[in-house]
Structure to design on (586 residues):
């Protein structure tokens, strides 16, 4: 490995465009925020070093035995983040970038591509309204005061949306689209542009500095590894990635899997599964996939390099379709229970479910088939209880997962993955293995009943109290019994009650907590609208038995439902809910 003659940014971009620079499959994907790209360009303009790069010269045979990708040009947060495959057939020798992908991709995006990220307060959608395409611009009118800028920037680079490029200051020439400098490579084209735009003084100086940085200054300093040894390249990659963002365990697993899978593209397969689960509404990463694999096969499930070897990688590839389908089936199941990314308190609770359906080989149609109905009933309750009891808390998940796994098998060697007598999800055996106090007393339930409507745990509490709704089709609503609009101050001022009672009306501990919440069929709730509780019950009881309705909605009998009786109602309902939850959770 030797230090080479530096090259210009323009040279590097040309190499990327011509596929002379490619990314080995062991590389992470691009992850820099737009602000970091702007900061990089400012550093270049100020003559600051941007660290050296490490390249690997790949010759014919070595290139054909490994996987490579093109650089990402048009980044769209969440929707276009994966690098395209690169065919090396007929390419001859080329250069693999072992260190510097983030910086080179940033230069490529800034000068030749685009960067789109979600606007604040807008929904996730792959369109220009929620996520407008942005290009990098430079303010050529004036420098910043680097003493006032938090990051000390002097040159104002900014990613601006295409929809904003007709703003007055852009039209007047304050902002220069950085990529246009590629058309001003020589002094003649540069002078013509300056003359046409009527630029002068500092604007010319700033633009000339940008042209110099791109075309004249050799700022890309790099080492070049010449040996055609894939394992050596992998070792170099792992070692040099101790700088910048450290190479974490999942990156190591990915690199090992990619290097050792023979018939499948590990990166493409794993990313496709992550995307599929995210399409169901659950944000997971490759870390979850690897954790699930370790849980399925390894006695030690901790994130340690020694827990994943080349031998494991071959096993991972051989079992991949089954692993993939089991993970997907696990998330299809919890989606059918009505969970979403917000209400699923810990994704680690899904891993034991995946383990069960994987090793019993019942993951096909598990979320829908009638023959798995009893399993689904048990698993649904178990997931809600684990959520409510906070069993999978931060910092304890590995230990809890190991304890849970002992509920499936008593085999200490790990050879028997699931006991032959386990024919139904063994929630009771699992609970006996968990070495935490999982008992439920009145104090614990009192705290649960204070849970607010938008709290992530409210869904599990209410779903346990109303198990018969159609959660599969998302046909349920979480709403107040006494409408929240009734508790507006101007309405409360009309009440004649004691200060103590008025304080209860005004407290979210009573008016916005489980005490005043219910889970209803969506059509039923839409019919309720903003009706007061008493009127709604009377409305529903035209066609329904009153006592059955009250029991189903856990509304206490023998108490007035009038809003002026809210304090007595809430006390009666508290006792009713406490008894029900203690029965369910114990």
């Amino acid at each position: 490995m030797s230090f080479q003659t530096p090259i210009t940014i323009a040279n590097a971009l040309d190499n990327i465009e011509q596929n002379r620079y490619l990314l080995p499959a062991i590389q992470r994907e691009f992850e820099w925020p737009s602000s970091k790209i702007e900061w990089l360009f400012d550093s270049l303009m100020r003559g600051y070093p941007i660290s050296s790069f490490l390249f690997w010269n790949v010759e014919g045979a070595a290139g054909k035995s490994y996987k490579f990708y093109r650089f990402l040009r048009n980044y769209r947060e969440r929707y276009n983040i994966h690098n395209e495959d690169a065919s090396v057939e007929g390419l001859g020798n080329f250069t693999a970038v072992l260190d510097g992908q983030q910086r080179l991709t940033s230069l490529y995006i800034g000068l030749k591509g685009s960067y789109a990220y979600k606007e604040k307060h807008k929904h996730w959608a792959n369109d220009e309204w929620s996520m407008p395409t942005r290009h990098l611009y430079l303010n050529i009118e004036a420098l910043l005061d680097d003493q006032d800028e938090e990051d000390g920037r002097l040159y104002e680079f900014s990613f601006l949306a295409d929809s904003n490029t007709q703003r007055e200051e852009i039209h007047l020439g304050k902002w220069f689209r950085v990529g246009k400098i590629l058309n001003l490579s020589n002094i003649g084209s540069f002078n013509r542009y300056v003359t046409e735009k009527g630029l002068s003084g500092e604007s010319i100086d700033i633009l000339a500095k940008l042209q110099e940085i791109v075309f004249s200054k050799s700022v890309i300093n790099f080492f070049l590894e010449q040996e055609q040894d894939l394992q050596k390249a992998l070792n170099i990659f792992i070692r040099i990635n101790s700088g910048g963002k450290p190479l974490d365990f999942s990156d190591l697993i990915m690199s090992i899997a990619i290097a050792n899978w023979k018939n499948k593209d590990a990166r493409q397969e794993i990313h496709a599964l992550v995307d599929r689960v995210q399409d169901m509404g659950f944000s997971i990463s490759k870390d979850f996939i690897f954790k699930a694999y370790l849980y399925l096969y390894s006695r030690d499930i901790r994130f340690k390099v020694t827990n994943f070897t080349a031998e494991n990688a071959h096993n991972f590839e051989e079992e991949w379709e089954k692993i993939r389908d089991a993970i997907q089936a696990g998330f299809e199941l919890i989606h059918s229970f009505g969970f979403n990314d917000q209400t699923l308190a810990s994704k680690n609770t899904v891993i034991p479910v995946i383990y069960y359906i994987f090793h019993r080989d019942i993951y096909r149609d598990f979320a829908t088939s009638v023959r798995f109905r009893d399993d689904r009933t048990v698993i649904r309750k178990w997931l809600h209880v684990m959520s409510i009891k906070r069993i999978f808390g931060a910092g304890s998940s590995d230990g809890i997962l190991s304890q849970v796994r002992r509920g499936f098998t008593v085999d200490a060697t790990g050879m028997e993955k699931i006991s032959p007598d386990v024919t139904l999800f063994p929630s009771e055996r699992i609970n006996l293995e968990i070495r935490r106090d999982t008992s439920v007393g009145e104090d614990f339930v009192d705290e649960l009943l204070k849970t607010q409507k938008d709290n992530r745990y409210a869904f599990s509490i209410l779903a346990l109290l109303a198990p018969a709704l159609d959660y599969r089709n998302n046909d349920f609503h979480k709403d107040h019994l006494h409408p929240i609009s009734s508790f507006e101050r101007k309405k409360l001022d009309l009440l004649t009650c004691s200060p103590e009672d008025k304080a209860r009306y005004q407290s979210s501990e009573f008016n916005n907590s489980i005490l005043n919440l219910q889970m209803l069929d969506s059509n039923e709730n839409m019919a309720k609208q903003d009706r007061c509780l008493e009127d709604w019950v009377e409305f529903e009881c035209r066609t329904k038995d009153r006592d059955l309705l009250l029991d189903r909605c856990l509304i206490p009998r023998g108490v007035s439902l009038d809003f002026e009786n809210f304090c007595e109602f809430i006390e009666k309902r508290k006792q009713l809910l406490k008894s029900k939850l203690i029965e369910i959770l114990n």
Remarks:
- The first helix runs from residue 9 to 17.
- Confidence is low (pLDDT under 50) at residues 242-247.
- The CA atoms of residues 407 and 426 lie 7 Å apart.
- The longest strand covers residues 133-139.
